[in-house]
Amino acid sequence: MYEVAGKTTVITGAASGIGLSMARAFADAGMSLVLADIEADRLNGVVAGFHNAGHAVLGVRTDVTDESQIQALADAAIAEFGAVHVVANNAGVGIGGAVDEMSLDDWRWIIDVNLWGVIYGVRTFLPLLKAQGEGHITATSSVAGLLAGPALGAYNVSKYGVVGLMETARAELDLENSPVRASVLCPGPVDTNVVRAERNRPQQLSPHESSELEDWFWPRLTAALSDGMAPEQVGPLVLDAVRNERFWILTHPEEHLPVLEERLASMKGDHTHRGL
User: Which residues touch 261 (CB under 8 Å, ≥6 apart)?
Assistant: First the structure.
């Protein structure tokens, strides 16, 4: 079991939703907090709340699409607390659209935040954890990183990429016999602001233009998320996985594991049918 009390965590996308839930769970476990988010005002309010509650906390406004800002986040964390032990690459955005209709700006923004943001986080923080000989690095994917549905092409691609990245990191750490651990969070329906991510869309990008498919799908997705798990339930799941050094973190295993089993069965059926 990995003991987290007295250690430091860095969390991106920490000012709301799942990131904030992680921050609360880690703070309650006795960890110092380094919280990053692109929304400065919201972040400042969250940091003030933790500070007033007596927790050791630092806020760093961070755009995860800029690797230099991720490096600045790491530098600030080490300057403040001397080390980093648990890293949660959690920042993410979502918009809808058919794969052949989404603009390249839509594709780039989603992949820049959801996948490149995690790549930058792994490149920056994993060497630090390995050098100190302990720690845990995790990233937030989605059930959409395991099962791809319609109207979320760029989102699905980015989240599949996160799963592949973290599985690779785990395999390489195992080959090195490293004490550092990795994990990936694949939440199902959770009541977060991800469906309102366009509030943070960079101004230099062309406006997102919805498609007929998105106009049909997005209200259904919004309703499903609003009826989903409370974000406050997710942070303790991540903390438990870090403590017990588990790779997969699923919020709705009873719903999604049977679907994944069906997917594997369909692969077997396809290969049997084709004589492979």
Answer: none
For residues 236 and 242, what is the distance between their CA atoms, to the nearest angstrom?
A: 10
Question: Considering the domain boundaries, does residue 1 fall inside one?
Answer: no
Q: 2, 120, 155, 160: which is the annotated catalytic residue?
A: 155
Q: Is the pTM of this model over 0.90?
A: yes
Angle, vertex CA 99, rays to CA 98 and CA 104, nearest 5:
110
Could you say which residues of the chain have pLDDT below 70? 271-276
Cβ-based burial of 230 (10 A; exposed 0-12, middle 13-18, buried ≥19): exposed
Residue with tokens 């800002």: 69
Domain count, the chain: 1
In angstroms, rounded to a whole number, what is the distance separating the alpha carbons of residues 94 and 236?
24
SS (H, E, C) 154-168: HHHHHHHHHHHHHHH
3-state helix, strand, coil in the chain (%, to 5): 55, 15, 30
* 2 part of a folded domain: no
Residue found under tokens 């000989």: 133
155 is catalytic: yes
- Asked if residue 45 lies in contact with residue 16, where contact means CB atoms within 8 angstroms, the answer is no
Say if CB 170 and CB 247 are below 8 A apart.
Answer: yes
Task: Tell me which residue range forms the domain holding 13.
Answer: 8-273
Domain membership flag for residue 263? yes
pLDDT at residue 272 in the model: 61
**Which among 140, 122, 234 is positioned nearest to 180, based on CA atoms?**
122
Q: Which tokens in the block code for residue 143?
A: 């059930």
